[in-house]
Amino acid sequence: MAQIHRLHVQNELKNCSADQLYSFFKNERTKLPQVLPHIFKSVQILAGDGNSAGTVRLVKFSTGTSREEIMKEKIETVVDESRTLRGSIIDGDILRMYPKFEYTMTITPLVTQGGEESCLVKLSVEYEKENEDVPNPTEYMELSSLIYKAVASHLAKKA
Question: Domain Bet v I/Major latex protein spans what residues (predicted)?
């Protein structure tokens, strides 16, 4: 039986409301190439309505190296009350190293002392390695943090 591994990362994002950020990742993920064109080449909806459980997206992106990757992700669960999205990678380059790759993203509102809107983004990843020589997917976790910060900055500029 394969061993399941877990990684967690969290980012506190200033000047960004939890509702705005959650809405972007739930409803507007196809706009990622406009926000981060140096990372995302395209995000297209292959199945579903784009923002609910059952949605399947094809994502073409770069991880910071020169290589471009493709992944097909499926949204498994959407819980608006807790601003939680859970999904799994069902096809693509990442599955060569990690045959199982699932994630949960939760966005929690924070109120700063000055009354500014901020939020905490928690990303948990559950994965299985192809073999023990495969490194932990820290590169993807770091990329996620970069994406959250860039989207928060983009949303702050729109406000």
Answer: 2-158
The residue assigned the tokens 């949605």 is 55
Is the distance from CB of 72 to CB of 58 less than 8 angstroms? yes
- DSSP, collapsed to helix, strand or coil, labels residue 35 as helix
pTM greater than 0.85: yes
**Rounded Cα gap, residues 130 and 100, in angstroms:** 9
Helix (H, G, I), strand (E, B) or coil at 78: strand
Average pLDDT over residues 106-123: 87
Architecture of domain 4-158: 2-Layer Sandwich (3.30)
DSSP state of 95: H
